Amino acid sequence: MSEKFIRAISANEVAPGGMKAIELDGNEIVICNCGGNYYAIQRRCGHMNAPLEKGTLDGTYLTCPMHCIQFDITNGEALSGPVLPNFGQEIPSPMFGEYLQNIGILMKDVRTESIRTYTTKLEAGWVQIAL
Amino acid sequence: MKKIIVYTLSTCPWCRKTKNYFAEHNIPFTYIDYDLADEASQKKISKEVDAAGATGFPFVKIGEEVIVGYQPERYSIALGI
Amino acid sequence: MNIQSRKKALRYFFEKVVGPLGFKFTPDADLMEFLLEQEVKLESKHGIPFCPCQPLRDDRIRDMKIVCPCIPFHRKHFDIIKRCWCGLFVHKDVLDPNKLPQLSPKEVGIE
Questions:
Q1: Is residue B58 a contact partner of residue B73, using CB atoms and an 8 Å limit?
Q2: Neighbouring residues of A25: CB distance < 8 A, sequence distance ≥ 6
Q3: Contact between A3 and A117 (Cβ < 8 Å)
């Protein structure tokens, strides 16, 4: 079955090292430019759905801004777990401490899934994505 | 025979080498893996390690002498072997 | 989480930090693999890749000083002994890491 590529954005809309969130046919996708190689991944973090384009891209490693989970954008693999809040001795009040504990309990069982990636190709200055 | 106590970490390869040194020389010793110990023991060890001005493990006590780090030559000298 | 994938990512990030500081990964491949694996496990447990050979104190300020690579927090010490405490990193000119003894700061005249 041959893949059907859809024109997404112009290549120069994403600078090297940068990311751009787009919607293509109802799919929320982030396009990453790694030194001229374009990758396309699902926009939502595999943990708690944070928008990944607001994170940081270093090489082919993307760090989610919400809980710092790192993904390999070449295959969507989740490389680490969430870094959950640990305020240690900085808790301003016992009530807030209890609140954090409750959040911690709720978040404890949330799994981190790897993210979907899309095949891309560059053609005539356009990034094309296979849906 | 001098009393030997070693504070170690289960994650540290140098601590493992230190334990092997005493085992291979058939020297009786006790060790505590700090990272696997209970809170009270950790506090106690932490205090002792700080007092000796050390920051890393292994922390070896041969009698009264403290040797920090994997240093088999110094262990041998301290043991007189 | 896949340990090997995580090790590869840590290698990528750490190299960028230690290189400009004059350090490189130890040429002892077995030691490097073992230490990185311990760090991946520590990261899994605590959320941060701590040094496998220094104790956690449950004091955030102190514990931040043993987050790998901890070279900047022990620069003077490690520059003298030409290695970091656990030996994951050594000075760039080191060919035989086995020749570098694990000396504490006191022993090299610091603190």
A1: no
A2: A6, A131
A3: no
pLDDT, one tens digit per residue, over C54-75 is 999 989 899 999 999 999 999 9
Q: Both tokens of residue B71?
A: 């240093």
Q: How far is CA B14 from the centre of its chain?
A: 10
User: What is B4-79's CATH number?
Assistant: 3.40.30.10
CATH number at C77 reads: 3.90.460.10
Cα B3 to the chain's mean position, in Å?
Answer: 11
Q: Mind listing the pLDDT tens digit of every residue in chain A (131 residues)?
A: 678 999 999 999 999 999 999 999 999 999 999 999 999 999 999 999 999 999 999 999 999 999 999 999 999 999 999 987 665 556 778 898 888 888 888 888 899 999 999 999 999 999 999 99
The Cα–Cα gap between A70 and C55 comes to: 26
Give the model confidence (pLDDT) of C4-25 as tens digits. 999 999 999 999 999 999 999 9
Cα–Cα nearest to B32, from B7, B64, B65: B7
Total number of domains constituting chain C:
1
**Subunit partners of chain C (3 or more CB pairs within 8 A):** A, B
What are the beta bridge partners of residue A126? A10, A123
Cis peptide before C52 (omega within 30 of 0): no
Query: Is A101 among the domain residues?
Result: no
Q: Which member of A61, A81, A89 has the closest CB to residue C1? A: A81
Please check whether residue A35 touches C, CB under 8 A: no
C-beta atoms of C6 and A88 within 8 A: no
| Contact call for residues A43 and A53 (beta carbons, < 8 A) | yes
Nearest to A111 by CA among A55, A74, A52, A69: A69
Task: Tell me which chain A residues have a C-beta less than 8 angstroms from the C-beta of C9.
Answer: 61, 70, 72, 79-80
If one counts the domains in chain A, the total is 1
pLDDT surpassing 70 at residue C92: yes
Decide if A129 contacts A5 (C-beta within 8 A): yes
